[in-house]
Specification:
Layout lengths: L2 E4 L6 E6 L8 E7 L7 H12 L3 E5 L6 H15 L3 H14 L4 E10 L1 H12 L4 E5 L7 H5 L6 E6 L8 H12 L3 E6 L16 H6 L6 H20 L5
Parallel strand pairs: 3-4, 3-5, 5-6, 6-7, 7-8
Antiparallel strand pairs: 1-2, 2-4
Length: 240
């Protein structure tokens, strides 16, 4: 599991880099944004899956300078506001990838929960080529934010997610109004974090009762859609 450090305007930051196991590249790339639990083994596995599919994948540790206890509240707020040092860290991760000789220069972003909020707002204000928003918060003023355009967005939500009720519909309507290429789905029977294998020890059963938890069948459906967008807009240039 290769841990690296990369330069950002806020100082060096730790990250996890996963590289495709076959070939020498160049490869398209994806910045992987963690959920509120941090740069966990689950987030590393998400990066590994992208690498196995032929993408360079870099997962920054957005808590890397102050630790989870100090950074979590400010970072969650940034994922919903669109401002804060985390966006410079994310853009620097994108630049780190494009500067590599084994990168094609096309870079997407994927995020989960808190990271889904970052993936959404980064799609509108940073030069990414595609974005995967997985149960990320959609701001009430999304129409105003997305009016200036965004890269193609694939969004995955769960109908049992009480916290994000109506967010998938809000994002769908905003993308349609703004003319942004999108694929937004709200899945029946699942709640939050259905793409994540979260392990919080003895509290894990409690998460499932509250609607959190991994669902293999739905996760595979979501990944199929994610790769369809990423392959279309990262692996090759879209047709004119």
């Amino acid at each position: 599991m290769p841990s690296i450090r990369y330069e950002t305007p806020n100082g060096d930051l730790d990250a996890y880099l996963a590289t495709p196991p076959i070939g020498d590249g160049p490869y398209p790339a994806v910045v992987v944004i963690m959920d509120a639990l941090g740069l966990s083994n689950d987030i590393r596995r998400q990066a590994d899956r992208l690498a196995a599919a032929g993408y360079l994948a870099l997962a920054p540790d957005l808590y890397g300078r102050g630790g989870m206890r100090k950074c979590v509240i400010a970072t969650i707020r940034a994922s919903r506001s669109g401002v804060g040092p985390a966006y410079a860290d994310i853009d620097a991760a994108r630049q780190f990838l494009t500067d590599r000789a084994d990168c094609t220069g096309r870079v997407g972003i994927i995020g989960f929960c808190m990271g889904g909020g970052f993936a959404l707002l980064s799609a509108m204000q940073l030069p990414f080529d595609a974005s995967s928003v997985n149960y990320g918060s959609v701001p009430e003023n999304i129409d105003d934010r997305i009016a200036g355009g965004a890269c193609p967005i694939v969004g995955s939500f769960g109908k049992r997610d009480r916290v994000l009720r109506g967010h998938a519909q809000r994002l769908e309507a905003a993308c349609t109004k703004a003319g942004v290429v999108h694929d937004i789905v709200e899945y029946d029977g699942v709640g939050h974090s259905f793409l994540n294998r979260i392990n919080v020890g003895p509290l894990t059963p409690l998460l499932r009762v509250t609607g959190f938890g991994y669902d293999h069948e739905v996760a595979e459906q979501a990944w199929s859609r994610i790769f369809a967008i990423f392959d279309r807009y990262l692996r090759q240039a879209p047709a004119s």
